[in-house]
Design brief:
alpha+beta; 3-stranded antiparallel beta sheet; 3 helices; 38% helix
């Protein structure tokens, strides 16, 4: 299946998979710039929510982006 992978490409163990990711973490995971992640969020290509004052992307959205890419 299309699960989350670490930097080396190995599948991440469930206990290492976070519920929410910061834009900077997603940028690193997708090998894109933070600015590009924020641009895609503004354009609606990435679904993000505010968790308190922080903007976060849920694990399911990260999995979708990992498997299908930015549409």
């Amino acid at each position: 299946g299309a699960g989350l992978r670490d930097r080396g490409g190995a599948m991440m163990k469930p206990e290492n998979v976070k519920q929410y990711y910061r834009p900077a973490e997603l940028a690193e995971h997708l090998e894109e710039s933070r600015q590009m992640i924020y641009r895609w969020i503004r354009r609606g290509k990435i679904r993000a929510i505010h968790h308190g004052r922080k903007l976060v992307i849920c694990r399911e959205e990260v999995q979708r982006l990992t498997s299908t890419g930015i549409q």
